[in-house]
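Hello forum,

I keep getting stuck at the same step: I have a sequence, I want structure tokens, and every attempt I make locally crashes halfway through. Rather than fight my setup again tonight, could one of you with a working pipeline run this one for me? It's a single chain of 586 residues.
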Amino acid sequence: MAPSVEERRIALTSTISFTAVRGGCAQRVAAAKNISSSARPSGRLQAGWQQSASGMWTQRTPKSVSSTGYFTPSSSSSVPALIGVQRSFPKYFKDRRRPQPLSPAGSSPRMLPALHRGACDATTTARAIESSLKARHQSPHRSRRKRFFDKLPIELWQLIMDLLPSFGERKRLCMVCKMALTSLEWRLAPPLQPSEDMIGLDLGDVGARAVAWAFVKPQPSMIGELSLGNNNIGNAGVLAIAALLRAGCAIRRLSLRDNAIGDAGARALAAALAENKSLEELDLWGNNITSVGKAALLATAKCKVFLESSAAPSEPSLWVRLADSRMRTVLFEWISQVQTSDHGALGADADPQDVLFQTFSFIDTYFAAGRHIKRSELQLIGVACTLAATSQATSKAGREGHLSDQDLATWLAFVTDDTYTAEDVKEALHRVKKTLGFKMHKPTAYTFLRRYLRKTGWTQESFSLANYLIELAVMNGGFCKYSPQAIAAAAVILSRQYLSQGIGYQNIESWKAKLLRCAHIDTEELIQCTAALSRLHVVEQGRPYRFVNKKYMWHGLHMVAKLKPNPPVDAQHLTAYLYSKEASLL
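Reply #2:
Ran it on my machine without issues. Output:
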């Protein structure tokens, strides 16, 4: 089991005690040994010394570490205790120079400045070491202080490293200590303060095991999301995470994207997902999992598993180039109208926006795969993709109370004015699934929008406005060159610019930095996408024939389509805004 906070504090207290003795109290120890109990040292009373009942001369108010971990005035037994420590570590006190005149506590050049404070914790220790190392070039005692740090045992350094509360503090210690870079392992112990966002820390398998160990005990902050992407985690590290999921961890969203997980790790995760009931989303794209491992995951998972990435295409497909004739926009508008007026036929428990954006993604992926595009099949492929998205959503939510695939195919054939039969819809569904394969399990712009809003803060009004903006963008063929992450992040930024029109938002500190880190996209792409989306809002708002405008004029969606668009912003203004503390673009 991981050591408790109290155990770590006690161990750190002992570490600081030894450091204090080695750094500044050794001179007092050596001097005290030479003081005769029968002779009063001349000038010592003026320096703050007193004679105890045993006859030994001790300083009146020296600093020492109490059992509670704080620095308090010591008793008359402090010097004998320090002598005991000196005898316990003889090799670190050999070849001492002749004792120098005693100096007041806190003035010794070898004493860490932070050790004289009223309280001390693990973070203070790291900062004290850092400041002491930085002062080498300025201190006249540079060589002696350097020898002090170089001669500390490696076990003591590792103990200090393990006691630091977060991986960030440990990496900070590595940056200021050469020995830490070469000999210490900062990922070994579980972090005392685990964070939701640990992307790109190069944790590896060792760090993944430490993170899993940290979540064995319930977290007071109730962390519901854990991002471990781009950390070079392999199969060995995933085994520890799988054991954590099997134990019933309360994490709802787990990101393991862009790592080195193979089929062995996928099988371990599949076995854990068969028992876990709390996980809702799992990111696994960008790993080394083959079709065998992906199939094993999908067979047992009760949550959404995203196996493929949603990167922007390098060049527009034939389907996107045909968007100039408004084929794609008209089809998407019709699909949105069908799903909005389904009266619960497509599943009451499934998120309708999630089903809608999954349908859009299936249509784009199907036609981008090089399929021959026939105008007569557009409607058929549209209802087939609707059936595929609905079946996938209801299978994760449970099929109780929902229509079967046969009933759904019959209803979708009916909405085509009986142009197609239920058998035609099911046959088209088979073709769509065969063409898409594992690409059916990709996150959409709506998936990323919900994640980013949870990080940056949202209200019901800002959520409706952001949904309106991404729906406008996805229906426009010109936005196919942007990734779903960029579209979602751009909608988050623009949804916070209408406070004067009643669209409020939560004031989250450093929300821009959190958005950029969570989105993990090129800043230039985000700036260009945000500028394009602001222009699109100006152009499309107020067009009565667009169903998306009618949809977002409803009271349940806070009538965000009636908002007067802000003037379009240029890329230069957006760049300055993203890296400033300004709350508004205006």
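The first strand starts at residue 49 and ends at 51. If your local run keeps crashing, start a new thread with the error log.
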